[in-house]
Amino acid sequence: MAESIKDKAVKGIGWSFVDNVASSGITFLVGLILARLLTPAEYGIMAMIAIFIAVSNSIIDSGFSNALVRKINIQRIDYNTVFFFNLVVSLVMYLLLYIASPAISAFFKEPVLIEIVRVIGWVLVINALAIIPRTIFVRNVDFKTQTKVSLISSITSGIIGIGMALSGFGVWSLVGQQLSRQLLNTIFLWIYCNWRPVFEFSKDSFKELFGFGSKLLLSGLLDTIYKNIYYIIIGRFYTSAQLGQYTRAEQFNMIFSSNLTSVVQRVSYPVLSSIQKDPERLREAYRKVIKSTMLITFACMLGLAAVAKPLILILIGNKWLPAVYLLQIICFSGMLYPLHAINLNILQVKGRSDLFLKLEIIKKIIAIGPIAIGILYGIEYMLLGSVLTSFIAYFLNSYYSANLINYPTLEQIKDILPTFLISLGTALLMWCLTFLDLSEFILLPIQIILGLVVAFILYEKTHLSEYMELKQLALSLLCRKK
Prior knowledge:
By secondary structure, the protein is an all-alpha fold. 86% of the residues lie in helices and 0% in strands. The protein has helices at 2-37, 40-48, 50-61, 64-70, 76-108, 113-120, 122-139, 143-166, 172-192, 203-237, 240-274, 279-306, 308-316, 323-334, 337-349, 353-366, 368-377, 379-405, 409-432, 440-462, 465-481. The longest helix is centred in the N-terminal third of the chain and has 36 residues, at 2-37. It is globular, with a radius of gyration of 22 Å. The two termini are 28 Å apart.
């Protein structure tokens, strides 16, 4: 049984990683092309409405997808109840956005937002149709199918977005890319999923699922608003071009931080849920997930901060130079995102959505400080404040999850400290090279090679268990391919 769980997790992580590379990776590459064709101001305009779409999607889901994944004995009526709830709420949310579009436009002083909000709003309904098929694949830890879907939708929507940009559609090319990606994603999820809705609705099922999901809804809303509030603050108090610089920095950060978080959350939640009644196995599996995940995360995020300047200048050009410093700050808060996600997953696995909500409320109250700093003193100070709140948030998350599985915060820190120190030392060496008078095209590969060599030597010398496990896993996957 233990082996089957391990194999399921490894397979899920592998395909979930490929899925993120296929979707986010391709979307990022398309974004590099679009960044050269479009202006920071046009990116800023799209960022202004990000919070409205994100909040609406949270309300539409209402925590039901996580409740369905966690439920052990699932029934057909559970899926149908959630499906029709999601669909009705998505139509209501679109109508509200349609009506509110003039007010949104006036708030940001961007007339074009009226039509953009009314068009991009359809993504809410399209996404609602995909929630149940996606949930079914997650329950089955079937990320291979989702990878196929992501590959098709990401490539096709990327071609559409680039084609529109070359044709002079400006900001509407970003709208076209997002809409087409979600539409294709939904269509192919339905094609590959055998489930079909039946018109039925159960009050008992709704109450049971909503009892767990409602607290996740509130905490999810708080988290979504917090993650996107910077878009509103920068968009309202600064220029659309400055907002565009921030969003570009955030998108570079998402290559590793958000994608790693997504992989860990999607795979660890169903796998850990399946062993939720075995405390010892749950604790050991949880510990291994944290150690392995943070080895990769620290290396990627601190390495990204070190190479930020040559990377941005080479990939998207000098007009995006202000994004460099923003990215370097964001990397230090972003490196903790997967750690937050893993700790919060335990609260869900244990059914403690009440603690989940309590934590989100506390953390968002603390986060008011950096937001106020951003309004008064500038974007950079706001981001520096977010780094501090990110560390505070970790201690809060780990305190509660530690009590549930007997894995104290101090023990967690001891487990991940060696990989942090190795990554930090390696990144500092890479960053020191930026003081040399070298072309970006020469500097970047030297930095990357130096980082890989130094990290490899240090990990080989220390023989950390998480490194040895990841190394063995990589070698076994290579042998299978051969």
